[in-house]
Specification:
The protein is α+β, with helices and mostly antiparallel strands. A hairpin with an 8-residue loop joins strand 10 and strand 11 (134-135). Helices cover 29% and strands 33% of the residues. It binds guanosine-5'-monophosphate. Guanosine-5'-monophosphate is lined by residues 93, 95, 101-104, 132, 178-180, 200-203, 215.
Length: 242
Amino acid sequence: MQPVQKGAMLYEGKAKKVYATDQPEYVIVEYKDDATAFNGEKRGTIGGKGELNNRMTAIFFELLDGAGIPTHFVERLSDREQLVKRVTIIPIEVVVRNIAAGSLSKRLGLSEGWELPRPIVELYYKSDELGDPLINEDHIAILGIATPEQLARIREYALTVNSLLREHLAGRRVLLVDFKLEFGTDAAGTILLADEISPDTCRFWDADTHEKLDKDRFRRDLGGVEEAYQEMLRRLVGVVPA
Ligand code: 5GP
């Protein structure tokens, strides 16, 4: 495709900025080093995170695109920037879990590390004001956030993404504990996987030691945050520990 020109900033989020381009159907996403947790209560920066998450998201989205999941991803443009299709984000955070951790452990009193009998999908209403509450299909229907058909498609994509990523990561000696996805619709109404897939949005554990290789190191003040993100990238590009 023709090289695109970066235009005005459209939106600044906690971890990314979004810019218009000279082509209305595309936007540029710029990844920042800023990190937040607990709905913005904890703030900091993680050195090199923008670059690392840009690269890891590109690797994951290319893998998923290749396996037939429609995504917004077009190409990585630079260290921190990627070109994506413009979508309207559906305000649902779709969480898929394989192993109990985080809010699931807390809500249901499950030991962190317990392998679930099967993957589960949870839906959260994407709202900073409300603190992203857990919602169900009835809530989504009365709020008019998505149709039942869209929701069925989203669930199907989320579980397929889980299978694909789990298998890919297993080969890199990484357990996919859980992750969060966001979807959007393009001008034609097609549902595309959007946002990012990175250690900011997933729990990754070393398959042998269960060492955390994700943002929980920042959330829980465990130290070694930058090293964990770098290690994840190393594994994704094929450097797997012996
Ligand atoms: P939990 O509900 O246990 O806090 O999170 C489950 C999974 O979804 C984790 O992998 C976590 O990183 C991701 N996740 C849930 N909500 C958010 C969010 O608001 N922002 C980010 N970056 N990840 C989230």
